[in-house]
């Protein structure tokens, strides 16, 4: 059985396969990478690096998009 | 040829980008994304403000604003609504820059209800941090000529004093000060917030403002698409009236018809 690690995504606890990347997380959630932005532990994760950035236990991620606003 | 050349070429520029429409509209408070899209189209706006929020993880396939208001067609102006500190504003807009790839942003740091008045101390701090981080900052601010001048000197690319509190629909309650800020400014001045109906937008433009930013006046109208059209016409009319130069106010009457040649 693959090891799992605990992370926090948009304030919610979540676990994911150890070694998973940001790209894998977005795919698992089902998000179009072109429409979101990701912050990991308060640092921006550039879109071009999603497939290279591996998640580590305790990571806190924010995944945002644009919504209506004034 | 019924168009006047001066108005045909009447564009404005912010942060090196040139725009024809002098109406910037928000994308919030509509009943649906379809209504948002139809209203914005009717407004003729080229720039729209947007907010940055967490994706709903439980519904990742929910329709997104971008599908209805395409960034390929409209310049997105991400805002800092909901941010109360400089660091929140910087974090939010860094995410916006990554999501959209641009650095033109609207800074707004609001105080508490019931007025949600611009918190100028926090606004100055956030403006400084954002400018240092490479953002081009259009700043929502109090109708305070001293604050406006300081924001301009710090490097803000547009000054956006409120006409009245956000969402109040009270119009331009201090036209004298808005006009004064515009006359002193070397960067574009926009009335942001407070516009309630078309005549308010026209007044803001007659005062010489470069553009008007509004949201609720359209979104909360009974017929948003029709109000969007009214706002487009009002901004154009107000701009034309400003360029045309209004007649002087006079305390006594002056007949329009000649007094000579009356029958006896």
UniProtKB/TrEMBL annotation, chain B:
Record-linked PANTHER family: THIAZOLE SYNTHASE
Spans through the membrane: none
Keyword terms of this UniProt record: Cytoplasm, Schiff base, Thiamine biosynthesis, Transferase
Thiazole synthase ThiG domain segment(s): 14-258
Tagged with keyword Electron transport: no
Pathway assigned in UniProt: Cofactor biosynthesis; thiamine diphosphate biosynthesis
InterPro entries on file: Aldolase_TIM, Thiazole_synthase_ThiG, ThiG
The family this protein is said to belong to: Belongs to the ThiG family.
Keyword Transferase: yes
Species of the source: Roseomonas nitratireducens
Catalytic activity, EC: 2.8.1.10
Binding site for 1-deoxy-D-xylulose 5-phosphate: 167, 193-194, 215-216
SUPFAM superfamilies to which the protein is assigned, alphabetical: ThiG-like
Function: Catalyzes the rearrangement of 1-deoxy-D-xylulose 5-phosphate (DXP) to produce the thiazole phosphate moiety of thiamine. Sulfur is provided by the thiocarboxylate moiety of the carrier protein ThiS. In vitro, sulfur can be provided by H(2)S.
Gene that encodes the chain: thiG
Catalytic site: 106 (schiff-base intermediate with dxp)
Superkingdom, natural source: Bacteria
Assembly and oligomerization: Homotetramer. Forms heterodimers with either ThiH or ThiS.
Catalysed reactions listed for this entry: [ThiS sulfur-carrier protein]-C-terminal-Gly-aminoethanethioate + 2-iminoacetate + 1-deoxy-D-xylulose 5-phosphate = [ThiS sulfur-carrier protein]-C-terminal Gly-Gly + 2-[(2R,5Z)-2-carboxy-4-methylthiazol-5(2H)-ylidene]ethyl phosphate + 2 H2O + H(+)
HAMAP family registered for this protein in UniProt: ThiG
Protein's UniProt name: Thiazole synthase
Gene3D superfamilies (alphabetical): Aldolase class I (3.20.20.70)
């Amino acid at each position: 059985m693959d090891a799992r690690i605990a992370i926090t995504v948009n304030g919610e606890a979540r676990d994911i396969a150890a070694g998973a990347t940001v790209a894998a997380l977005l795919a698992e959630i089902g998000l179009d990478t072109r429409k979101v932005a990701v912050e990991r532990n308060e640092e921006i994760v550039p879109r071009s690096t999603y497939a290279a950035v591996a998640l580590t236990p305790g990571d806190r991620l924010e995944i945002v998009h644009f919504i209506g606003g004034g | 040829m019924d168009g006047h050349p001066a108005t045909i070429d009447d564009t404005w520029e912010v942060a090196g980008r040139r725009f024809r429409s002098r109406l910037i509209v928000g994308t919030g408070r509509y009943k649906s994304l379809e209504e948002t899209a139809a209203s914005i189209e009717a407004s003729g706006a080229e720039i729209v403000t947007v907010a940055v929020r967490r994706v709903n993880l439980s519904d990742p396939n929910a329709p997104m604003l971008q599908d209805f208001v395409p960034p390929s067609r409209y310049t997105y102006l991400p805002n800092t609504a909901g941010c109360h500190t400089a660091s929140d504003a910087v974090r939010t807009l860094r995410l916006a820059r990554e999501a959209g790839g641009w650095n033109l942003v609207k800074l707004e740091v609001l105080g508490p209800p019931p007025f949600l008045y611009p918190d100028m101390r926090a606004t100055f701090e956030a403006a400084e941090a954002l400018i240092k981080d490479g953002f081009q900052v259009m700043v929502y601010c109090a109708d305070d000529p001293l604050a406006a001048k300081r924001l301009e000197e710090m490097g803000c690319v547009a000054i956006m004093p409120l006409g009245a509190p956000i969402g109040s629909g009270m119009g331009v309650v201090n036209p004298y000060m808005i006009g004064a800020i515009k006359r002193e400014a070397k960067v574009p001045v926009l009335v942001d917030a407070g516009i309630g109906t078309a005549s308010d937008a026209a007044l803001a433009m007659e005062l010489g403002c470069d553009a008007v930013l509004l949201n609720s006046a359209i979104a909360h109208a009974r017929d948003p698409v029709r109000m969007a059209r009214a706002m487009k016409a009002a901004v154009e009319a107000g701009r034309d009236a400003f360029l045309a130069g209004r007649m002087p106010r006079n305390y006594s009457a002056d007949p329009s018809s000649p007094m000579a040649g009356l029958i006896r």
